[in-house]
């Protein structure tokens, strides 16, 4: 996709309705709900339903899963009206498509992985974007680690979402360099792990737009 006038911003890992509303008011395009029990940002379906109900129109809710059992994903979907799914593990296209919902696929960047070949595997009607995150051994995401943005392809077969170690002081440079469709952040807008800091959220969104 070519250069866009406005880079979309997703703030991931929200845990309460008030913060979600504040993040929306700060200008976020999407909020992420983590359904991954080992994460400090994990939420129950009940918490997530309250958060989604607090969102104003045109702010998307994104449900994040990591190699989750399809039964668990379906049970969350029955309780929470999510707009988009984010698969952040080793899921393949068949797995991601089985829910009949739009999704984005995350990939953790490693030197031996051909990102364009990987992206091509997910080109399909339900896949709405490819998210790049940093590779950290043993942790699937939300680590606050970034990766080298040099030498990334400039043309992608899917809308590109950049994540991994972004924060208010590096997001503008990242956008200029990578020209993604959207950016996604979790750790970089927190002071305490799992707790969003609204000043950092505000600074991040101002720097990204
Ligand atoms: O946020 C989490 O706890 C998380 C857990 C498991 C997989 C992904 C997770 N978050 C996603 O990770 C990236 C990068 O996050 P960070 O900004 O470096 O902390 C981002 O896409 C989050 O959505």
Flag low-confidence runs: none
Number of helices: 7
Helix/strand order: EHEHEHEHEHEEHEEEH
Output mean pLDDT: 96
Cofactors and ligands present? Answer: the ligand O=C(O)c1ccccc1N[C@@H]1O[C@H](COP(=O)(O)O)[C@@H](O)[C@H]1O
| Total domain modules | 1
What's the Cα radius of gyration? 16 Å
Quick one: how many beta strands?
Answer: 10
Catalytic activity: N-(5-phospho-beta-D-ribosyl)anthranilate = 1-(2-carboxyphenylamino)-1-deoxy-D-ribulose 5-phosphate
InterPro entries: Aldolase_TIM, PRAI_dom, RibuloseP-bd_barrel, TrpF_fam
Pathway: Amino-acid biosynthesis; L-tryptophan biosynthesis; L-tryptophan from chorismate: step 3/5
EC number: 5.3.1.24
Description:
The protein is of the alpha/beta class. The protein has one domain (8-208): Aldolase class I (TIM Barrel, Alpha-Beta Barrel). The protein is 28% helix and 22% strand. It is built from seven helices and ten strands. It has helices at 17-25, 45-53, 70-79, 93-97, 115-121, 171-178, 198-208; strands at residues 8-12, 30-34, 60-65, 84-87, 103-109, 127-134, 160-162, 182-185, 190-192, 195-196. The strands form two sheets. The protein has an eight-stranded parallel β-barrel with strand order 1-2-3-4-5-6-7-8, surrounded by four helices. It has a two-stranded antiparallel ribbon with strand order 9-10. Helix 1 (17-25) runs parallel beside helix 2 (45-53). The model has no long low-confidence stretch (mean pLDDT 96). Bound molecules: the ligand O=C(O)c1ccccc1N[C@@H]1O[C@H](COP(=O)(O)O)[C@@H](O)[C@H]1O. The site of the ligand O=C(O)c1ccccc1N[C@@H]1O[C@H](COP(=O)(O)O)[C@@H](O)[C@H]1O has 26 residues, from strand 2, strand 6 and strand 8.
């Amino acid at each position: 996709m070519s250069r866009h006038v406005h880079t979309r911003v997703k703030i991931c890992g929200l845990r309460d309705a008030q913060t979600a509303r504040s993040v929306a008011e700060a200008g976020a395009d999407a909020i992420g709900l983590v359904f991954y029990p080992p994460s400090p940002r994990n939420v129950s379906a009940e918490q997530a339903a309250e958060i989604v109900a607090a969102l104003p129109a045109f702010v998307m809710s994104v449900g994040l899963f990591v190699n989750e059992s399809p039964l668990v994903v379906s049970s969350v979907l029955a309780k929470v009206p999510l707009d988009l799914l984010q698969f952040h593990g080793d899921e393949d296209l068949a797995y991601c498509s089985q829910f009949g919902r739009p999704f984005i696929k995350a990939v953790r960047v490693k030197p031996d992985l051909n990102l364009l070949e990987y992206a091509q595997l997910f080109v399909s009607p339900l896949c709405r974007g490819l998210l790049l995150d940093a590779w950290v051994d043993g942790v699937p995401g939300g680590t606050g680690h970034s990766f080298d943005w040099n030498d990334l392809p400039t043309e992608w077969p899917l809308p590109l979402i950049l994540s991994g170690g972004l924060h208010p002081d590096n997001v503008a440079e990242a956008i200029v360099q990578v020209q993604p469709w959207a950016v996604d952040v979790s750790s970089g807008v927190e002071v305490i792990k799992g707790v969003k800091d609204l000043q950092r959220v505000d600074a991040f969104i101002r720097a990204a737009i």
